[in-house]
Specification:
This is Ribosomal RNA small subunit methyltransferase I. By secondary structure, this protein is an alpha/beta fold. Helix content is about 40%, strand content about 20%. Helix 7 runs antiparallel to helix 8, helix 9 packs across helix 11 and helix 10 packs across helix 11.
């Protein structure tokens, strides 16, 4: 029989948020794969538990190389527990490769649900939560970051991002450029920790605030684009959206179809706008 891969959520700040099952799994797993073994040691000490199994590191630098080793352990019947520094594995953290490899080998995969910076920030933001999408970290290069943001400028769902504190001011300024300075957002800092702070306002206002310097773990929540009727998007905007998608690597046919679907228009109308712009030399 094959073993079981367990993905376990860990506290994003306050260790008291650790789910009770986490201690049980840490104590009973045959192998504990941790993003940072030193942080794991501090966590186990705080929880008063001693892992009986083997502890190995599993982080971005060795994820590809260590995954086959862990899959063989699983195939041999081991119970492997995967934990990251904070939150749920695979969510902008190591885990996806191991899950995919385990599934391919018909290994059972389960989870110990736990704290999530994405959901916590979303709930605290004061922005709509009925529909949202998680975008992770944006590219570090300014041009690539702007292109990525322009791709989702028309997205009507609430957007959630992670960002490093030293890049927050640039990111918020770029968001204000791509989405508009008045688009509502919330910057959630140090969630569940002593100096937790949620700053809400327009993107332009938040960018000015962040320019003074911000510290800590950051999650940014941005309001989705306002609903627009089919007649509210002019030809110039339709062409711009198609170009953004083409610059991101989409073929023109797929870009036109996607823009038409998003705008609630016939594909032919978007196609005609693109052709007219090309003929006009725009």
């Amino acid at each position: 029989m094959t073993g079981t891969l367990v993905l376990a959520g860990t506290p994003i700040g306050d260790v008291r948020d650790a789910p009770p099952r986490l201690a049980e799994e840490l104590a009973g797993a045959d192998v504990v794969a941790a993003e940072d073994t030193r942080r794991l040691r501090r966590l186990t000490q705080a929880l008063g538990v001693t892992p009986r199994g083997r502890v190995v590191s599993y982080f971005e630098g060795n994820e590809s190389a260590r995954t086959p080793e862990l899959v063989e352990e699983l195939a041999g019947g081991a119970r492997v527990l995967l934990v990251t520094d904070a939150g749920m594995p695979s969510v902008s953290d190591p885990g996806y490769r191991l899950v995919a490899a385990a599934v391919e080998r018909d290994v059972r995969v389960t989870a110990v649900p736990g704290p999530s910076a994405v959901l916590t920030a979303l709930a605290l933001s004061g922005l709509p939560v009925d529909r949202f999408c998680f975008e992770g970290f944006l590219p570090r290069k300014a041009g690539e970051r702007l292109t990525r943001l322009r791709e989702v400028a028309g997205e009507r769902r609430t957007l959630v991002y992670f960002e490093a504190p030293h890049r927050l001011d640039d990111t918020l300024a770029t968001m204000a450029e791509a989405f508009g300075a008045d688009r509502r957002a919330a910057v959630c800092r140090e969630l569940t920790k002593t100096y937790e702070e949620v700053r809400r306002g327009g993107l332009g206002e938040l960018a000015a605030w962040a320019a003074e310097g911000v510290r800590g773990e950051i999650t940014v929540v941005v309001e989705g684009a306002p609903d627009r009727g089919p007649g509210e998007l002019d030809a110039e905007e339709l062409v711009r959206r198609v170009r953004v998608r083409e610059e991101a690597g989409e073929r023109r046919k797929e870009a036109i179809a996607a823009v038409a679907a998003q705008a609630g228009l016939p594909k032919r109308e978007v196609f005609d706008a693109v052709v007219a712009a090309k003929n006009a030399g725009a």
